[in-house]
Amino acid sequence: MSPQNTSSSTTQTAKTQSKNTKITRRTLLISAGALGITGAGTLWWTNTPHYPNEQHQHIADTIKNITDIGDDNNQTHPVKVNITTGLNLPAPDTHQPAPNERTLQTDGITAQKHASTLSAPTVGLNITYTETGLTQTPEYSRPQMILPPSHQAALANFSASLEDPEGPSVIAGHVNYDNNTMAPMSLITLLNVGDPVYASTTHGEITNWRVLNRRSYAYRDLPEDTFGYHGPKLLRLITCGGTDGHGHYTTNIVITCTPA
Q: Would you say residue 3 lies in a domain?
């Protein structure tokens, strides 16, 4: 989920907005589930730094040296996911998305119009998120997930919603901007067990959560049931982490929260 990821599964094409403002579109592979469904996240980034240098360095160091904390939740055994890079989020094997879920396009205007809010006051996180799903583009033969700009996050509509009585709801976001300045979702790496998290729905309802654990998974090892529609009611927050020493992120950092 990093705009700086230059792995073989990340491509970049130039786009031009009005008034000759250039932005870059990069596609990132997302996951494969038990059915072998694989997608790619499409990132639209901005050039605006978000944090002062001191905080940027602190978060970057935390991500580089991240460790697992907290108790396990009721996940099934992890299943190796055959994916090489990017945000490797396994698609569920229990739900067939409606046609509009596979064709949802999320640009900045749409994202702002339908945005809800994710906040974690202990780390200063306050970010809007939009609901996104899977789509298809000519560049890839497999489905893709559309992600908003780095200053926003995305709620996966191919997993449980915040209003559903069971199953994990998943909110994912890019860890940094194109200039390597940390983006808001990088702050989830600073969360500790017991910290409060709040997510408002599109209907204005505030859902309350507490951090249960933090886990770091290699891209190929993200548990299959990270997404789904059944099991305990959970909120999962995901961004990238790890480093290969060349500016590439190598892991997914997953914060699992339980209802407060």
A: no
- Note whether residue 37 is domain-resident: yes
Q: How many domains does the chain have?
A: 1
Domain that holds residue 216: 11-259
Give which of 162, 50, 150 is closest to 116, Cα–Cα: 162
> Would you say residue 126 lies in a domain?
yes
What percent helix, strand, coil does the chain show, rounded to 5? 15, 35, 50
- Convert the pLDDT of each residue in 65-108 to its tens digit: 788 888 876 544 443 332 222 343 333 333 333 333 222 233 44
Q: Which residues contact 20 (CB under 8 A, 6 or more apart)?
A: none
Query: Is 0.70 surpassed by the pTM of this model?
Result: no
Residue written as tokens 């072998």? 36
Q: What is the pLDDT of residues 12-26, one digit of tens each?
A: 333 333 333 332 222
Three-state secondary structure call for residue 54 = helix
Nearest partner of 49 among 241, 180, 154, judged by Cα = 180
Note whether 28 and 86 are within 8 A (CB). yes
Domain CATH for 182: 2.40.260.10
Tell me the per-residue pLDDT of 27-71, one tens digit each, with 9 for 90 and over: 233 332 322 233 333 322 233 334 456 777 888 888 877 888 888
